[in-house]
Amino acid sequence: MLAALLLAAGSAPPAHAAGTLLSQGKAATASSTEAAGTPASAAVDGDTTTRWSSAFSDPQWLQVDLGATDTVNQVVLTWESAYAKAYQIQLSTDGTTWTTAYSTSTGAGGTETVSVSGNARYVRMYGTQRATAYGYSLWEFQVYGSAGTGNNGCGTVNAALNKPATASSTENAGTPASAAVDGNLGTRWSSAFSDPQWLQVDLGSTQTVCAVQLAWEAAYAKAYQIQVSPDGATWTTVYSTTTGAGATELLSLSGSGRYLRLYGTQRATGYGYSLWELQVFTTTAAATPQLLSYGKPATASSYQDDANCSGCLPAKAFDEDPATRWATSDTTGWTDPGWISVDLGATAQISQVVLQWDPAYATAYQIQVSPDNATWTTVYSTTTGKGFKETLNVSGTGRYVRMYGTARATAYGYSLWTFDVYGTGGNPTAPPALPPNPGNPEHLVWSDEFNGAAGAAPDPSKWTADPGTGPNGELEYYNAKNAYQDGNGDLVLEARKEATPGSSCPTDPLTGSTTCQYTSARINTAAHFTFTYGHVEARIKVSGTQGLWPAFWLLGANFTTGTPWPNCGEIDIMEHVGKVADTVYSTIHAPAYNGANGYGSPYQIAGSDFASAFHTYALDWDSSHMTFSVDGNAFFTVDRSTLEQTKGPWVYDHPFYIILNNAVGGDWPGAPDATSVFPQKMLVDYVRVSQ
């Protein structure tokens, strides 16, 4: 009768039977917090009365660092009333490159239990649409899976499973000690109603214990100890608490013994002690997989090195530069089979291969390993390759690893931006470290408020003028004199209808002349200030007439040292074309997507004219995403993982500089015509960068 009463009181087996709770008490971070009282850590503290809540905008995210790579199979979200209608659960091994393991646009709030599958050190909820006008708020964010590697090198196997168990007492024949180590969260051990009580398990041999997980029934321990013993007689306490919280407790600890016991000294209820499951995890000698292929010697069936693909050598697939690639020869290599191989320098245990394909990808290929570069063993094979980014979990041993393509997806050859091999052993060289992500909160690191005297040039310690003609079929000649401060706190970039003798531009449709018929201004911070990641914004009143093309954008700083466009990367925070008065555009450009095929989105206020007022244009950028906004309204987010799986490589983990310009004519806006009005002033109130 007592057992029935306890179950009726809400002590049914926990919904998280998918495995070990990995996230509780781990380091958590978030895109934002609403207030000091709702930090990221509150969502992983095991306390359902504390919560994380975000700023009132989209997107927002919460992530937890499990400590090392674990196998993840379930996430439980306990939402406050401010929940996500659309969100993703994303996994990452490095906190930089994310894979979406679950996605929904019909989130229901309340408690949502989500099944996922993957190996990850970092797990995050990435919200893209709020269900309310408030932010996102979670009472608890719980990640379950195979415990161990996230706990200072623990193994993933429950060492107590089905081992002999004894207890100080049992409530009845239906709740024996063995029920707490049978791997069944529908059975339990329960004790007599007195203190102290204990449950112990014989691990079979001396083990180094590094974690214990307790899945409590409603009758839990407020005060207890975890103890280890070499002989079942002499005990050493390796964990002790007087504030046990019940539910599921994952305990990181350190101790060695053949026997382990839970020793309860104070019950939380008038009943006894009751456990659905006691799990024990021990240290493993397995090393954490690492990147083995960076900078290693590479060979291929052929390669291309001409005007269409200069320097597309095998080594380019292993240089960790996402803007360079290997391609088979365009004269001999557009045939099957085609292959590329890397020498890891020594024998390695291979656990993962990541391929970032160019559009010339393989529909059928194999991943092979070899001890001598002669005899090959296939560890992965497919006939349905999808291109873009493919992450392959494999298992094999060898010094050499190759992609062996047998069927091309196109009439061209095979081409890879990156070919990354992960595992243990080999002779790895550490790749360059990624820049740090912005702080939380961010702080202003650079700005220009343009408070100079009327007619003064932009601050020469911050800006350099770009003289001469522009790209993209533009019709202006850029002059430093066209950039000046107005004395009212604004920078002016003025486009004028005036010819520049001796200049050369595309033919002007109105005059038929190839002499540049317009002047304007373009300035940049390349020689003064560059930055990677952060929040950058400018308050701008754009120019507006047929043929005008004002812009606020970033260009990869390596452009100034010889990296060509679009390999350097380009981030257009705001572009406006005079012929579309009510719309501005945000776009990114890289080798795999650029120009008219750039990845971007418009922002429209139907019936308005952006040239009639100031607006604030902003970018929030870190190692995993970019979010573009106008006047605080986020309208376009580039998620790194999604980009890599649908467009091509992310090339934005290096310094960029700021550019402001007011172009005339060009491929996109077209040339001024008889309706165009000059002069046209682009006004900039300020530019600010925070990190």
Automatic annotation (TrEMBL):
Similarity field: Belongs to the glycosyl hydrolase 16 family.
Protein name (record): Discoidin domain-containing protein
Taxonomic classification: Bacteria, Bacillati, Actinomycetota, Actinomycetes, Kitasatosporales
Annotated transmembrane regions: none
Recorded coiled-coil stretches: none
Signal peptide: 1-17
Entry keyword set: Signal
CDD domains: GH16_laminarinase_like (cd08023)
Keyword Signal attached: yes
Native source organism of the sequence: Streptacidiphilus monticola
Pfam families the record matches: F5_F8_type_C, Glyco_hydro_16
Lineage: superkingdom: Bacteria
Record's keyword annotation contains Transmembrane helix: no
Domain F5/8 type C: 9-146, 149-283, 286-424
Domain GH16: 430-691
